[in-house]
Amino acid sequence: MFTVAQCLAKAVELEQRAAEPHPPEVRAEFLLMTLQWRRLADRALIQDQRAAIARTLPA
User: 3-state SS of the chain?
Assistant: First the structure.
């Protein structure tokens, strides 16, 4: 599983690549991959929050 920071860093990298002069279909692919990495970041954040809550619960 990736960390939130890793996922967001990859999303930013892909957004920057999408801004470069590529054919429209390539730019669209970069933007779609960006969305996927942002979704992974959301999942990682939820997992981190669940783990933090689990640590506070009595055994």
Answer: CCCHHHHHHHHHHHHHHHHCCCCHHHHHHHHHHHHHHHHHHHHHHHHHHHHHHHHHCCC
Is residue 11 scored above 90 in pLDDT? Answer: yes
Tell me how far CA of residue 11 lies from CA of 6, 15, 27, 52, in angstroms. Answer: 9, 6, 13, 25
Banded pLDDT at 13 (limits 50, 70, 90):
very high
Instruction: Note the pLDDT of residue 59.
Output: 77
